[in-house]
Design a protein that fits this description.
This protein is 38% helix and 18% strand. It is built from nine helices and nine strands.
């Protein structure tokens, strides 16, 4: 039986994702985010990638039994206050993760439907998209696709704000309670859009576009910051604003490491939030 939440000395979050040997994305980015936001992080590894800032040169997908065993090991002992998914690689792993979420009653689930790496490498099999849509999204509190991922999940071509809302509504029709469609691939400001199904509200998470090529791991970092904030007991709306502020700071102080897309700066982002600056709807 897992540890009672009231007896845990700190918030606990779980990431279920792939390993990035370059350290900028995947479980490495997630655990850095959890730590800098004061949350104890645990991980379930779905795949091991050989990658750096320029390319993914190899992917080894773990056996489904290993993924299932990892989920069981951490949930039957420690439990978690929130969880997030990242790279799930195959339809079989998606199904196993969905089963684990149901079996262990994992709440506050953030689904980041990782499909393509920053360097353009496919990280989710084509036949796995249906399992994400049909098995995993119904279990999520919130889903955090970028625009290409939202298009792939819904079949809606996104070219306008009304398209973003339509895609968010379609995503939430699967059963998830909210969707945040990220604006990094759009033109102009890098605004994200939070749609809450219960109220039908759409909230803009405003963000200035930062001129940098060092954006490796931004999606992982955002969804991890969202999960960490939920683990701390914050509301979904407050968690979304906080995650947006965190990833914006991480990009603003990004690290020019390597020859390609360098990583974001989790340490600087954590320090900025600890300064006590507001996290709210202001730009």
């Amino acid at each position: 039986m897992q540890q009672d939440r009231s007896s845990r000395p700190c918030p606990v979050a779980l990431t279920i994702a792939g390993s990035d040997s370059g350290g900028g994305a995947g479980i490495q980015a997630d655990l850095k985010t959890f730590t800098t936001l004061g949350v104890y992080g645990m991980s379930v590894i779905t795949a091991v990638t050989a990658q750096n800032t320029t390319a993914v040169t190899g992917v080894e997908v773990l056996p489904v039994a290993s993924v299932t065993a990892q989920i069981g090991a951490v949930m039957e002992d420690i439990g978690c206050d929130a969880a997030k998914t990242g790279m799930l690689a195959t339809a079989e792993i998606v199904a196993a993760v969905a089963d684990g979420v149901r079996r262990h009653s994992i709440a506050n689930l953030v689904v980041d439907p990782v499909m393509i790496s920053k360097s353009g490498h496919t990280l989710l099999d084509a036949d796995a998209c249906d399992n994400v849509r049909n098995l995993l999204l119904p279990l999520a509190l919130v889903v955090t696709p970028n625009i290409p991922e939202a298009e792939a999940l819904t079949g809606i071509r996104i070219t306008s704000p009304s398209d973003i809302v339509a895609a968010a509504v379609a995503i939430c029709s699967t059963g998830c309670r909210a969707a945040i469609i990220k604006g990094g691939h759009a033109q102009g400001d890098a605004d994200d859009h939070l749609y809450i199904a219960e109220s039908g509200r759409t909230i803009t998470l405003a963000g200035d576009r930062i001129a940098t090529g060092n954006t490796h791991g931004t999606g992982c970092t955002f969804s991890a910051a969202l999960a960490a904030s939920l683990a701390c007991g914050m509301s979904l709306e407050h968690s979304a604003y906080r995650a947006k502020k965190y990833v914006t700071a991480a990009i603003a102080h990004a690290l020019p490491l390597g020859k390609g897309h360098g990583p974001t700066n989790h340490i600087a982002a954590g320090e900025q939030l600890r300064d006590g600056r507001r996290t709210g709807p202001e730009r």
